[in-house]
Amino acid sequence: MIPRFDLELLQFIETHQVNNILRVPPVILVMVKYTTALGCDLSSLRRVGRGAAPLSMELEEEFRRQFPWVGLQAGYRLTESCGATMMFECGDDAKRLPDRCRGLLPSFGAKIIDAETG
């Protein structure tokens, strides 16, 4: 557990051989901008879950160019659920459909409602 975000995150990933992290787009931007500049080795990283805000196509493409071995996957959470509500896609589906979540966790239900008709 890292108490706050700063550039030490990149060195932490390298030192502790972290392979899965959950991050928001501003942190993904820092990873893209500073990993090479700081000389950090993030080769242990296998998956980055992202959420909380949209990720621009340009940033996503640059992330995938710099870290082609890392799965970059969208996630969805609700504050009122006290954590995750959906799982990440894995394997080939994650590469083919990076903005898709697998589905609701077993203890959740969902209802789709048309905003126009209710």
TrEMBL record:
Organism: Linum trigynum
Superkingdom assignment: Eukaryota
Protein name (record): AMP-dependent synthetase/ligase domain-containing protein
AMP-dependent synthetase/ligase domain residues: 6-118
PANTHER family: 4-COUMARATE--COA LIGASE, LONG-CHAIN-FATTY-ACID--COA LIGASE
Keywords: Ligase
Pfam families per record: AMP-binding
Molecular function via GO: CoA-ligase activity
